[in-house]
């Protein structure tokens, strides 16, 4: 039997039966990245290693639309060094 357009649309809008989100809480595991996060590594010998990860001081997060233009730290630093001379002197801070 051939599916009609409404049947095809209905199939796209509904989740599969195995996806059960009853009782789910939106944002339950969200927290700001700068607070850190815990990673559990399950090894083949049956042991589990727990590591708490935090971002280093001075870490800067790039927006997703900017990342393709800056593949590494050096490319970001190069671009910022070009902008520094264009900044007004009153906005510059001493390091």
Describe this structure in words.
There is one protein chain. The chain is of the alpha+beta class and 95 residues long. The chain is 21% helix and 13% strand. The protein contains two helices and two strands; from the N terminus they run αββα. It has a two-stranded antiparallel sheet with strand order 1-2. β1 and β2 form a beta hairpin. The longest helix has 11 residues. It is extended, with a radius of gyration of 24 Å. The relative contact order is 0.07. The mean pLDDT is 81.
State the helical fraction: 10-25%
Beta-strand percent range: 5-15%
How does the major sheet shape up?
2 strands, antiparallel
Which spans of ≥5 residues are poorly predicted at pLDDT below 50?
none
Give the ordered list of helices and strands. HEEH
**Overall mean pLDDT:** 81
Structural class: alpha+beta
> How many β-strand stretches?
2
Tally the helices: 2
CA radius of gyration is 24 Å
Strand order of the largest sheet: 1-2
């Amino acid at each position: 039997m051939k599916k009609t357009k409404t049947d095809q649309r209905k199939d796209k809008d509904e989740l599969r039966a195995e996806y059960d989100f009853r009782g789910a809480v939106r944002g339950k595991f969200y927290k700001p990245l700068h607070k850190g996060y815990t990673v559990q590594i399950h090894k083949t010998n049956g042991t589990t290693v727990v590591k708490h990860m935090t971002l280093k001081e001075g870490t800067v997060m790039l927006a997703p639309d900017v990342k393709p233009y800056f593949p590494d730290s050096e490319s970001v630093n190069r671009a910022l060094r070009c902008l520094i001379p264009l900044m007004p002197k009153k906005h510059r801070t001493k390091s």
